[in-house]
Amino acid sequence: VFGLSSAAQVVLGRGNFGQYLSINLGFGIGVTLGIHAAGGISGAHLNAAITLTHCILGNLPWRKLPAYLIGQFLGSFTATATVFGLYYDALYDYTKGNFTVTGPAATASIFSTYPAPYLSLLGGFFTEFTATVMLVLGILIIHDEKNNGALKGTQALLTGILVLGIGLGMGMNTGYAINPSRDLPPRVFMAIAGWGMEVFTAGHHWWWVPLTAPTLGSLAAVLIHKLFIDFHNQPVPESGNEKGQTVVETS
Predict the structure, then answer these.
(1) What would you report as the CA-atom Rg of the chain, rounded to the nearest whole angstrom?
(2) Rounded to whole angstroms, how far apart are CA atoms 181 and 185?
């Protein structure tokens, strides 16, 4: 809700109610609050790519995967519907009732990601892959009690700042989906709400890239962390186990 509404305000306000930085801050705030809301209950699984990675690594039972994915889909879909209702009048005024994916009055990019006109499909894939590597690597470092983990209680804020940093440095090419759960449900909603099936065909059928590239990037980040950091970590002293247990479970 925070991320999409900030994007809507920037686009529909024609730059008078925020800039690109506003969108990045909105998503960072949303991630921080999402982790605080669900961290103690489910581990704050907000990203399907990370959830799938946990299942592949054996950290999460496969039987729980459908419930997490359904929850992520419904949360993202409901957020899109909420922002759509919140800004419906502004959307109608901005587009004169013609919701389009491309063109001078395009509004689809408010809700899901699309590649920049200059970007090749391979370049877009690499962008999403790299941005997700940085996301997951950052999350692993923040929660790495054996290395130099964050102070207890600051992990959510630092993860939000991490998302902000990715947006500030790697958002121009694709809008940094870095999360299948953040991109597909809004696309489905838009197809139903008036934008049509062009949401799936635009950008050389771009829709599948935010699903696959983040998943592969998440797995690559785990491998990088394991090879270059985790294997070289010192064992955690016995006195530090109690603190580390809670943080690892939350992550």
Answers:
(1) 19
(2) 7
Percent of the chain whose predicted confidence (pLDDT) is above 70: 94
Q: Is the dihedral of CA 79, 176, 114, 104 positive or negative?
A: positive
Alpha-carbon distance of 34 to 147, in angstroms, equals 25
Model confidence, pTM: 0.91
What is the token pair recorded at 16?
């008078």
Backbone angles phi, psi at 61, to 5 degrees: -65, 140
pLDDT digits (tens, 9 = 90+) for 33-55: 999 999 998 889 999 999 999 99
Residues 46 and 179: beta-carbon distance below 8 Å: yes
Q: What share of the chain is helix, strand, coil (3-state, %, to 5)?
A: 70, 0, 30
Note the maximum CA span of the chain: 65
* Domains of the chain, first to last: 1-230 (1.20.1080.10)
